[in-house]
Please model this.
Amino acid sequence: MEKVFCQRGEKSFILLVISESSEEIRKNQIQGGNFIPAISLEGFESATDQRRGNGVYRKATEAMELLKQKKLIYGISACYTSANFESITSEEFFDSLIEKGAYFIWYFHYMPVGNDASTELMPTPQQRTETYRRIRHYRALKPLFAMDFQNDAEYVGGCIAGGRRYLHINANRDIDPCVFVHYSDSNIREKTLLEALQSPMMMAYHDGQPFNENMLRPCPMLENPDKLREMVAKTQAHSTDLQSPETAEHLCAKCDGYAQAWKPVADQLWEESVQARREKQKGS
Model:
């Protein structure tokens, strides 16, 4: 993919999430100027290798060192769970990335996607709140730009999936509304991209966004699972999981308890955020 789009004058921008780098990737980045790798880490060595395989952390940090030597811009993609949130959001972890030359880190909340996905890895409301506060604190102080895919929805008006800002195309060329929502009624081999964006599933996203006025509850799956149930049933979208198709009911049932527990905490945090903005506006 990077061979096609990484060319001078190409208007597309590519953020490629990888576990290690290569000379070809670095060459394309230099030649193209529109391509930035994001290296996946789950924290330090033990956490990364436990989830992604032995030796992955070593390969990832070697790639980071090479990118730093070449003075190339790169960032980190990190998933926080109940098991790793303490270390992956620690000041020590932030400082280690700064030392290795990273320019940004993009945090993703663990999603229980897949028939065998563990709900025990979903962060507790307290852990998510602490993640929310830590990222904002370090973002204001450290030379590493941190983004939180779940908790920073207020800056983009809620959910950006369903073609509003992005969509996902899997290896079978099924067009999913989101990388975490594997339900589709379109395939890129059968429809143009415009036709897919006008499909019932994508239009259901379009008509439903934002899925919640509280920007700390943006997702139709994680925080509003009844919304995803409704959209899949209404559009008759099918599972696009290539290994083990999962029903929307099975997926959403794993999110029901989480959504209920997060709601009062999110509502309080959102009210604090709204009040802070009002106070800032009064003082300006």
Notes: Residues 1-14 have pLDDT under 50 and may be disordered. DSSP finds eleven helices and nine strands in the chain.
